[in-house]
Amino acid sequence: MTMVQEMNDRSTPKRPEDKLTIWETLRRRPEMVTLTILVVICVAVSIINPNFLQPGSLIDMGRASVVTGLFALGVFAILAAGGIDVSFTAIAALTMYSLTKFVITVAPDLPMAAIIAIAVVAGALLGAVNGLLVHGLRVPSLIVTIGTQYLFRGILLAFVGTVWLMELPPQMTAFGKAALYQFQGANGVTVDLPAYFLIFPVVVGLAWFLFDRTLMGRAIFATGGNPEVAARLGYGQRVVHVFVFAFAGALAGLAGIIHVSATRMANPFDLVGTEIEVIAAVVLGGARITGGTGSVLGTVAGVLLITVVSNTLVLVGIPSTWQRLVVGAFILLAAAFFVRRKQKPKQRKAE
Amino acid sequence: MSDGHFLELRGIHKRFGGVHALRGVDVTIDTGVAYHLLGENGCGKSTFIKIISGAHAPSEGEIVLDGQAHGELSPIQSLEAGIETVYQDLSLLPNLSVVENVALGDQLVSGNGRLMRLLNRRRLRETAREAIRNVGLEPTAKLLGTMVGDLPLAIRQRVAIARAIAADARLVIMDEPTTSLTRHEVDALIELVGKLLERDVAVLFVTHKLEECYRIGGQAIIFRDGECISQGPIADYSRAELSHLMTGRELDTMRYRKGTPQAEEVLRVEGASSGAAFEDVAFSLKAGEVLGITGLSDSGRNEVALALAGHQPLSAGHFEISGARVHLDSPADAIARGMGYVPEDRLSEGLFLQKSIYQNEVTLILDRLRGRGGIVDKRKGREAASKISEAMNLNTGNIDLPVSALSGGNQQRVLIGRWLSIEPKLLVLHGPTVGVDVGSKDTIYRAIQAMAERGIGLIIVSDDLPELLQNCDRILVMNRGRLVDELDAATTDENRIYQSMLGSANEAA
Description:
Chain A is mostly helical. Chain A has 15 helices and 2 strands. Among the domains of chain B are: about 255-340 and about 425-509, 3-Layer(aba) Sandwich (Rossmann fold), CATH 3.40.50; about 350-425, no CATH class. Chain B has helices at about 45-50, 75-80, 100-110, 120-135, 140-145, 155-165, 185-200, 210-215, 240-245, 300-310, 330-335, 345-350, 355-360, 365-370, 380-390, 410-420, 440-455, 465-470, 495-500; strands at about 5-15, 20-30, 35-40, 60-65, 70, 85, 170-175, 200-205, 220-225, 225-235, 265-275, 280-285, 290-295, 315-320, 325, 340, 425-430, 455-460, 475-480, 480-490. In chain B, a hairpin with a 2-residue loop joins strand 14 and strand 15.
């Protein structure tokens, strides 16, 4: 079920028998649960420790969620189509490091817009390789992407380089530093709201549009729902497979370059290893690992939830080592809830 | 359009490697007419449908569509011409809404299958509303927004037909549409078919249920061994003629039940109730007896079957097996007590489709096959499986074939045969011949009787009345959760059973 359609449903005047019960609403829109948990946590944390509401910590969290968020939207597309991807971090690492090295050594004057465009295209091409392999070999995408994760990472470390690049090209440094707005913190420290933060909402908007307003979006869900039926009904499976993996790859390329610019160095050993956290965020947002479900809004909520949990435990006095424990518990709870959701409440006959 | 026929198939042959599936089929289809494609499994019906829908290309012959001759059709050509196929799985996407299932195809086909296009949500909604109304459903926002996977089967089927209407279908092919429907739902579907015919749509049924063919009327197309051996108004054929044409042999309507029950009682059910599903059910079963249980689909008969299988614990009352009281909490309990259950939906509940016949047959005795170090003794297992295949008259020599490669009748035999491996005291067969052709029915019935001869007590839960009359000693009839009648199968008839099923208080179906 898609977000917009549900909203339309709500806005049309309804007869009484048309009303959705709360249970049904939750069943249809699991992301509401994630959002609710998110809000509850935020309120609780800000009561215990008002520092949470400081622009400083909010911006920190926002910044932290950009890269995870971009990854997550890509993973969501693949989960929705019934696949899974664990190679996106390797795509991001390969793209960001090679591109940074390329800019430093070959084209130091390349404008930032071009760098971003190249990152997106290169990521998309690497992702498309995944898609072609998944479609062509008819091998489960988990296996394919485990293979390509090693492959991409191997290429990076064996042929491109293993040295940290500490001296970024100036245009990348500038991009990472550019501030949208400056906050004056309570303690007199100024905090920047980085400009690249804007990229996330823009991509969220684009992803929403893609899933909800294009035939491709529906084809992705159709494929995740039942690939055989989708093929029979005329949804080209090859196009869908290549598209979702290329989409995830493009977002990974973008995330990689943002990561480099924000951390102001290119570390070839970065990012790989964070796949599980990203997949966890998407699943927390209501996408089922078996495909065909979830929403962009839910994915964003899942990402924010994971980020908030990771960043606020310290604020309320819980040791940061507990982080994994809490995230793990959330994932299990969410899974239990979504399984229950699938089993409809028994409908007894009215008579 | 010179001769006015919508679709003509001329001299169609289809070969798959060495298999000659269709041998020169000529069939003419006009809009506004109902057709019933009849024949045993493996007679070429599915191949024929796939050629019409563009999934297969014929090896020989031509297809004349709206007066234009084609050597073969592509799926898109077929769809564009308005040929819609409603397969048994309905080709619905469970995770998309009713609106999307009904109307997305229209936008997909109009864009020639291109996916990078904007979705016209308003058109989607309007197309769906209109089509949903045409299949007799109220297009409320709630229904339209519901995911298809959450709908009951009968409604899903209407959604599938609505999709055909939304696509301006001129020929709707339905593959065994009534297999899992209740009597009321079948009535509703038949009414719907009438509406399609009124809209000048042709409807082609692939079915085993002759009774429904007669009710719907129209033309019969009878296939045997890849040939269309007869076509004409269905009313012109008698039941006996139809089965003779399909099988090539006389099918006796004789009773299969010849034996008599033994004296020993294997099962006694007393005061059994389960929530609102059934109440105060009591009966007994002797060794070697065949007992039928029937009723409308909401009569509680299915729940009784599930309770006997240990799927649904009783809320009151009890079962006695060979005189000992038992409490069944799980299917494992029931199996441990020698009670077998063959589910109605063999595909999703009973068989491991991708696994071989051998693997399917030994699932219940893996424990017994365990040799030294807990490793399964394959040789012993294969012997057991071969013996079962023989006993069940499975006409394939190869027990390594995956079950998915078998016809429906053979799959059912694998499923029933599995129980022979544990020599059960009692076997509950739930709809044993649902979706099975005439010839396979015969072998299944023979297998049932053979099991009774071995002293197994059998319960057949079914709404196929001729089946119960032919196979049972006694028939129990349920209505609204209660046992309302007990009939001697040798002397009663269908009408008498119907009356009990419907009950006097129930408005006639």
